[in-house]
Amino acid sequence: MKNLVTSLIRKNNSKIVLIVLDGLGGLPSEEGKTELEIAKTPNLDNLAYRSALGLHIPVDWGITPGSGPGHLALFGYDPLQYQIGRGVLETLGLGIEIGERDIAVRGNYATVESKEGKLLIKDRRAGRIPTEENRRISAKLQENIRRIEDVEVIVAPGLEHRVAVVFRFPQALPVGSDEINDTDPQKTDTEPLTPKGRNPQAERVARIVRKFLRRAEEILKEEKKANYLLLRGFSQKPKIPCMEELFGLKSLCIAFYPMYRGIASLVGMKVLKPAGNSVKETIYTLHEVWEDYDFFFLHIKKTDSYGEDGNPKGKAGVIEEFDKTLPKILDLKPDVLAITGDHSTPSVLKGHSWHPVPLLINSPYVLGRTSRRFTERECLKGEIGLIPTKKIMNLLLAHALRLKKFGA
Amino acid sequence: MKNLVTSLIRKNNSKIVLIVLDGLGGLPSEEGKTELEIAKTPNLDNLAYRSALGLHIPVDWGITPGSGPGHLALFGYDPLQYQIGRGVLETLGLGIEIGERDIAVRGNYATVESKEGKLLIKDRRAGRIPTEENRRISAKLQENIRRIEDVEVIVAPGLEHRVAVVFRFPQALPVGSDEINDTDPQKTDTEPLTPKGRNPQAERVARIVRKFLRRAEEILKEEKKANYLLLRGFSQKPKIPCMEELFGLKSLCIAFYPMYRGIASLVGMKVLKPAGNSVKETIYTLHEVWEDYDFFFLHIKKTDSYGEDGNPKGKAGVIEEFDKTLPKILDLKPDVLAITGDHSTPSVLKGHSWHPVPLLINSPYVLGRTSRRFTERECLKGEIGLIPTKKIMNLLLAHALRLKKFGA
Fold first, then answer.
1. pTM for the predicted model, two decimal places
2. What domains can be seen in chain A, in order of their start residue?
3. Cβ-based interface (< 8 Å): residues of B facing A
């Protein structure tokens, strides 16, 4: 059967804005207050009083989501049904576009030693070489290996020892994400593994990868530390129906960091990079493209970065910066405005967490007046309750009056 | 596997009353208050303080339910699993009983013109002819067409241009709801479509329908406006297990409007029409039959009608009328009393909506004292939380002590 929501879609001229403050939800730090409670947010407080509030759970109770599942769920996709492979996510994060014909994999430069005719891994991260070193070495690899047979090879340096490799085939080869084994054995003093395919299709890919690795070994052997390359997470762009098809929405992503633009492009959004990393620059970009789309996803990264650093005041500062810019969004009079995160990143945990994420939805069709602020504790009192993240899109479409009645 | 609840049923002499104030949930109108907040309801307030409160979601977050799914869910059925076809619902709404052997369809009288040997639709609604005209024309059709071969035909006039037609076959012919195409192309200046069956069974029905339409065309051709009949939504009574079978309940529906008696009869309830449309007459009927059933579903329509008219004070007035009559229900000392709606109909939206519906359950086994009134905002504080509508029946059975323990 066709997806229920898709079968009820009707189009209109409404505009929906979804603001994602990455890692928004938090926990109390020293003063017993969460980052949202520390922040002084007069504009958000005012909006919260007039909005529907609640919290959402990206994957399941107790499950800490990565950026991929967190965002896919926000876009209305079941994050357990649609999974983005590690290789693909890493590659998207480096700003490389991934197409249907690509097999992407993430890599580590590593240090190996020859012993009794065997190659043994001594350091899986090549002593965390500086990013500059990585760039030099990756450029050398790329110059020397442009193709393996009829397969284009793209080597994209990341931070420190991290790298992504894309194998671009002449035509699409459907290969499951566990059909080629990692070459990284995840331990030292042992040999790197040889990549093999679990079926003829995957083996066709694995054969190219083996050839690539032999060439890479040759090219890297003069390097002191990064004299080897370990690969893991062979993956392909997942087959995901696009947002236009599912929800009838012309969608735009405004995000400074490539990974978020990459995830958005996987579901068919157009993507735009703001001039700079600040909240202001992200939100000002919205004004320039307001007429051209139905749905706008704006991504603000720094809430998560400060959370990961264990810096509650820094995170609160970004929330305050957002609060000051909020009137610029309200000026546009979106029909539906949602403000939330893709997951929680409590400063006390210095990382992503499983905690439900605060959610605010503003439209003319809310009950409102349940809560005085936009904080975790105030969201608990709200009319939305605790919902699965993937259902938020239903609510945004409903508030935009873009869904017909079900049944007579 | 057998349904969990069904496997746990134990019978006793308890009595359960479910009052449905159609379209009960609302949104703030001018004064920032919802219809339930505007209404003065001393009796409901008192009951709310002693009851379990919450809100329920009939189909899914953001999905606006029709009356069919809303009521089926209240009766404990999954509204996505059991769907009532448009033709069947329309026919039930006109007070025609639908049996296993019937194919029902809704129709529009339409205006067609002959042009170069083609019949073109000029007005899909025959200029919205008066209901009186419709009755005259439908009676003429019915007099002239009693049977097509061995199939009985029932023509039931609705309002303005609307009509329902039932084809009663000598034996049941299972036909899926999309197995015969509509004849209404949903646009003008084009020819009506010919009904065809997607499989031999459906084609057997379609052949009878085509014969019927040729006869109808002949009979209607002298009419000025309503000179044609367009059909859509061929459907059959869905196969639904009855409430006695699922829940061991002898059930009665008391409803003035035929559609609600019709939906109740689909799940095997006995049905009773009160003397009049008022809240009082509906509730007084309960006293007359109190000894004969276990489960009583009372339907009060006017909350929804005022909501659809965009009249919050009118809707609040019906709620006040209900409040005044509430003691008459309490006099009967039901073991479990539930008061709710089948969906929300906020006056500001002038139609059904996706908003969660307030729910009150009273029994000796509630926590209570969470809330001072029976309103959307006070229900948010209640002990039931936000639940899927189809789970309410579990709660009613539990509070009636009609469910055994699961597992040892």
1. 0.91
2. 4-79+240-399 (3.40.720.10), 88-235 (no CATH)
3. 27-28, 32, 34, 59-69, 79-80, 83-84, 86, 89-90, 346, 348-349, 351-356, 376-377, 380-381, 385-386
